[in-house]
Write a structure and sequence with these properties.
Elements: H1 3-6, E1 17-23, H2 29-42, E2 47-51, H3 56-67, H4 73-97, E3 101-105, H5 108-117, H6 122-128, E4 137-142, H7 145-156, H8 174-196, E5 199-202, H9 207-221
Bound molecules: adenosine-5'-diphosphate and magnesium ion.
Magnesium ion (MG) binds near residues 29, 30 and 105.
């Protein structure tokens, strides 16, 4: 893996801070990051959210590839890497440069854990994502795979084709396949905990307990005072005049 993702060198220090959540499907990542985002927004912090697999640029190709089951482990991985690179260069990095707290629902570690479970080489994967900074904090939501499956099924029926790793032909039963595939992913995440300093969260705990843990951790390791939105209330314009009242919209004519 290239050094840019390993540690932020002194000369490259960015004013923003990067927080990511990782874990298998159904581990509770999106629930927790959404609550963290609202909490930070509520305090008036400069905060930006970015989600895995959401780039407009590659959406069409990803959809077509997935729907037609045209993707191999390599192209599956590369298409997600393109999605990430697009969001990284056009959103994440500019927002870090602009001094925002950037929250990411999944980051490169998703690919390291999941695409490796599809048979991609770990070193190849880390090189592909070598352009990306290592997040300041990465929470890893650790949950037994059977519990994640129960949550997913309860929330929205069966796991989908790729969540279950059906492309790998591990088992004809999607639930069985999910268990095998997501157990592999969990093992890969656990192997990365020390190397990348992932912060393991006991994702079996109640939502509120986990959220308090996240808030406490973020407060401790990031100086949030530096992320206050600077709002200037304009009471006078440059000539010292009181600005005019905003125009009142005209009532629509009745026909
Ligand atoms: N700590 C928790 N205990 C029980 N259910 C949870 C917990 N956290 C999340 N859930 C539920 O599990 C489901 C999946 O959560 P979600 O946040 O979407 O997971 P992910 O984003 O990791 O796939 C949702 O229905 C959510 O309400
Ligand atoms: Mg989610």
């Amino acid at each position: 893996m290239r050094t840019t993702i390993d540690e932020r060198g002194d000369g490259r220090a960015l004013p923003g801070r990067l927080i990511a959540v990782e874990g298998v499907d159904g581990s509770g990542k999106s629930t927790q990051i959404a609550l963290l985002y609202k909490w930070l927004r509520g305090q008036g912090r400069k905060v930006f959210f970015s989600e895995w697999n959401s780039s407009e640029l590659v959406r069409g190709a990803t959809k077509r590839g997935k729907r037609g089951q045209l993707l191999t482990p390599t192209t599956f991985s590369l298409i997600h890497a393109t999605d990430f690179a697009d969001r990284y260069e056009r959103q994440i990095l500019p927002m870090l440069r602009a001094g925002f707290l950037v929250l990411c629902d999944r980051y490169a570690f998703t690919s390291f854990a999941r695409d490796q479970a599809r048979g991609c080489d770990f070193n190849w994967l880390t090189q592909i994502y070598g352009f990306a900074y290592k997040p300041d904090i990465t929470f890893f939501f650790h949950v037994p795979v059977d519990a994640a499956l129960v949550r997913l099924v309860k929330a929205r029926s069966e796991p989908n084709w790729f969540e279950a790793g059906m492309d790998l032909e591990l088992d004809p039963d999607p639930r069985e396949s999910f268990m095998i595939f997501q157990s592999r992913i969990t093992a890969n995440y656990l192997r990365m905990v020390d190397e990348y300093g992932l912060v393991r969260v006991d994702a079996m705990r109640p939502i509120i307990w986990q959220q308090e843990f996240l808030r406490g951790y973020v407060t401790r390791f990031i100086d949030l005072e530096g992320f206050e939105v600077a709002t200037e209330y304009i009471t006078q314009d440059v000539y010292g005049l009181i600005p005019p009242e905003p125009p009142v919209p005209k009532k629509a004519k009745r026909r």
